[in-house]
Amino acid sequence: MACRLADSVFLFKRVQIVRAVAVPVARPPAESSSVDNAEYRKQLSESYGFRQIGEPLPEDVTLKDIMNSLPKKVFEIDDLKAWKSVLISVTSYALGLFMIAKAPWYLLPLAWAWTGTAITGFFVIGHDCAHKSFARNKLLEDVVGTLAFLPLIYPYEPWRFKHDQHHAKTNMLSADTAWHPVWKEEIESSSLLRKALMYGYGPLRPWMSIAHWLGWHFDLSKFRSNELKRVKISLACVFAFMAIGWPLIIYKTGIVGWIKFWLVPWLGYHFWAQLNGTVHCDYPNWIEILCHDINVHIPHHISSRIPSYNLRAAHKSLQENWGKYLNEATWNWRLMKTIMTICHVYDKEQNYLAFDELGYKDAKPITFLKQVMPDYA
């Protein structure tokens, strides 16, 4: 999800940002023994819903060492597997639309959940295309990526440029385009902004990627001059889809149909948009299949050249060779509660502070979530 509870399993010492185990509590005393630290990590794992919080990497381990440990086959493009993923997404999305059309009102939430998850697969396909790990033909990748992003009204090239920046600056404060913790100075600058952030990083956290989508990909001033031509072409494609596709949906099904068939599944996609985090998190099998294993995301941050259909094999290799350093979780309510009620304000010493811990009177949304959200892993 949106909060990067444990920054990349491989945060190298040359990047002095958040500690390798970025959890919202203070660091154990420096004089603690290795046994104490292991016990400390175990306690944190249980407390915050992780399966494991990995050990810090040794000082002499480099990214090259880790990449060299991966089987060469995980970097190979397989056309059959690539187009199989397209087939899975197209058929599962079509099935979802059929279920929405036929389901009685009380089954619509299940149909929406399926369809929103299925359409997330389109994003993953476009994601592979942007990383040039989908096909050997680069023009084909750009065409497929653009088409895959259109139902999500995501402009392909603007996303690609900003996502490349995310990979170059992963987990770097103020530089990573995908990870933006709240600064204390920011929330104290305006009471209106603070209230908005309370809801955005609290009850509305699963849909905060909508703000990221809108804020980073449509503003031409955020792109270099040599990027603008491709950015404008992508924006034109998105606006054309909206200008043609939306009226057709409304003409055939009405405004209610537009909400049923497009808007709610689109919101479902944004719920899953942050599956691609830097913590390995297991989900139910049907979700992983429809999302093409993008939750198995640590290998992707080792090398973006690994196609989504090879992520699981790459992760298995990482477990075998570097297992004790991995941050891993299985989706559970305690993990969700940590994300939505604790991971708020960046703090240099404690990593994250919850809004209500800072004494703000308008932190009622966070207090409410802490009271009502389940707390079992």
Characterization of the model:
With 377 residues, this protein is mostly helical. It has one domain. The protein is 54% helix and 3% strand. The protein has 15 helices and four strands. The protein has helices at 34-48, 63-69, 79-102, 108-130, 138-149, 156-168, 184-187, 191-200, 209-217, 228-272, 285-290, 298-302, 311-322, 333-341, 364-372; strands at 280-282, 328-330, 345-347, 351-353. The strands form two sheets. The chain has a two-stranded parallel sheet. The chain has a two-stranded antiparallel ribbon with strand order 3-4. A hairpin with a 3-residue loop joins strand 3 and strand 4 (351-353). Helix 3 (79-102) runs antiparallel to helix 4 (108-130), helix 4 runs antiparallel to helix 5 and helix 4 (108-130) runs antiparallel to helix 10 (228-272). It is globular, with a radius of gyration of 21 Å. The model is unreliable at 1-31 (pLDDT under 50).
Helix content, binned percent: 40-55%
Question: Given the structure, what is the number of helices?
Answer: 15
| Beta-strand percentage range | under 5%
Number of DSSP E strands = 4
User: What are the low-pLDDT stretches, counting only 5+ consecutive residues below 50?
Assistant: 1-31
Shape, principal axes of CA atoms: globular
How is this fold's topology laid out?
Elements: H1 34-48, H2 63-69, H3 79-102, H4 108-130, H5 138-149, H6 156-168, H7 184-187, H8 191-200, H9 209-217, H10 228-272, E1 280-282, H11 285-290, H12 298-302, H13 311-322, E2 328-330, H14 333-341, E3 345-347, E4 351-353, H15 364-372
Parallel strand pairs: 1-2
Antiparallel strand pairs: 3-4
Helix pairs in contact: 3-4, 4-5, 4-10
Transmembrane segments: 82-100, 106-127, 233-251
InterPro entries: FA_desaturase_dom (IPR005804), Fatty_acid_desaturase (IPR012171)
Domain Fatty acid desaturase: 104-326
